[in-house]
Each structure stands twice: as structure tokens, then as C-alpha cells.
Amino acid sequence: MAETLDFRRVDYPEPHRERTRRLLAAHPEAKLLQGPEPWSMPILLGVVGLQLALAWVLRDQSFWVVLLVAWVVGAVADHALWVLIHEATHNLIVRTPWVNSLSALVANLPIVFPGAIAFRRYHLLHHAWQGDPEIDADLAAPAEARLVGRSTVRKTLWLLFYFLAQALRATQLRRIKLWDAWYVANVAVQVAFGVAVVHYAGWTALGYLFLSSAFAIGLHPVGARWIQEHYLTFPGNQETFSYYGPMNVFALNVGYHNEHHDLMRVPWSRLPALKRMAPELYETLQFHRSWGALLWRFLTDPQITLYSRVVRQGTAGTGRLEPAA
Question: What residues does each domain of the chain span?
Fold first, then answer.
């Protein structure tokens, strides 16, 4: 009889609230690390400009050249833009929420898919209700997890088309309000941007941006970040994991994921300082050193599946939910 796969189901609270309490009790000065990072906006504009320039330069190149540049440069650049959308989600570009939302729309431009505002909706709820399958869009849907199973081929295809998996998950989380003026603007801006790219630079330029976007959240070492954060890749009860490898330089320290969950108003530039401030909390935790090694392990190890996650049912109660601004 075939083994039945399932999530690790628990009835205790998510761990970050308690560690935040301990962190602030022992290190109240950690609050001083919170607040916007002035360098985020120049970096955001610079990476958007880089991607648009590369799309223009590659507009007449062969598919293989476009594919190579998208893999080597474009994926890393778009991943950095996702990190900056993440910073905007936490109002860490500037202090004004609507300016952060506008910044996220700008960062979204080269990513092609209209994901910035949806990410804001779902990610803030992920922080509040980590592991609740009715709320947490970071969890695979049961049908999605069953379909992928233990197969290396299916896990590879899942990562390659992860952007589609994320979009399909959104349709199943009916308790979360998505459509509003900001989301409509996000979709409209991306459609207009795509039309403008094709009109002025052609389909090859848009193809470069599309491939960069797909690799940034999929079948690429930076795509392993989505596995690193909450997949149960180590024995024990830990359910959030950080990455302390060299790619943090290009990924704006997004690997510091335990630190981020514990004090989510600390911007990317100060997360290493938070870790150094509280070694008694972070140096005892398991962590990853290589996204590339993790990517290979996820694809080839049948013990790591989409079910390798902690879930806690019903923590958000009932009714429709909206994230805090």
C-alpha cells in the first residue's frame, strides 16, 4: 500500500512571536534597527533600469543568448526586485504606505507578471498566520502537493512553472480580499508595460524579461530561496530557516529569514546587525549555506516534498481577512 504523504500538523503557536518577545526583552535596542533604508529606492531604480537596458540590448539576439543572459543576470536582478517589493510590503522603502505601494509597482515592471500588490496582501497575512492553510499562500494547496509528490521530474517542472502555481493558489484562498484599486492599477500598468515593450523593442525583449522573471522564482539557485525559508529540510521542530551564504550580497540579505520574521520592521541592510546583536537566539538555529546545494537536494531527495511544511489549522478563526497596511 502506498504511503500517504501529509503536512506536519501541530497545535502549538508559530514560533516567532515568542522569540520576538525574548529578543526585545534581552535587547530592547533592537528596536533602533527598525525603519526604512534610504538606499533601497536608488537600488530599486537601478535594477529596473538594468533590466530595461538588457531587454533593449538583447532585442535582436538569438534565443540561446537571451536564455543565457536571463539565467545568469536577469534571474538575479528580478529576484532582487522581488526582495525590494518585499521591503515595500513592510513599508521599508519610505515611511509613507502609498509611496511604498507605488514603489512596488515600479519594481514590478520588469517582472512582467502583476504580482506586487498580490504579494503585499498575502505576505503580510503569512506573517500573521504562518502555517494556516486557509490563509498562508506560502503553503502548497493539497492537490498541488499530491500532484508533485516525490518525483524529481515533477518537482523540477513545479519549480520551472512556480509562477503559475502561485497564481493558482491565490484563487483558492477565498477569505483574502485581493481586488481593489491598487490591484487593478498593478494589472493595468503591467499590461501597458508589456504592450510598450513589444511595440518599442519587440517580442524578444519581452521574452528576456519573461524568462528572467520565471527563473527568479523558479528553477534557479535563487529560486531555492522559496524552499529555504520554511521547508522542513532539517530534523527537529524548527520551521523557519535562514541562509547565510554569499548570494545574500545580490539578494539584499533576504536569506536572514528567521531574523526577518522575528522583527519584520528591520530593513534588509540591518538584518545582519540584528543577528550579531542576539547570538544566543540565532547561532543555535539550523541554517543553509548554499542555495545551489539546497536546490539539488530538493529536486533529488524524495523525502523533501511540498508536504514538508508545518501547518496549524484554524488559527485565523473565520470570516474574511485583510492585511494591515
Answer: 15-311
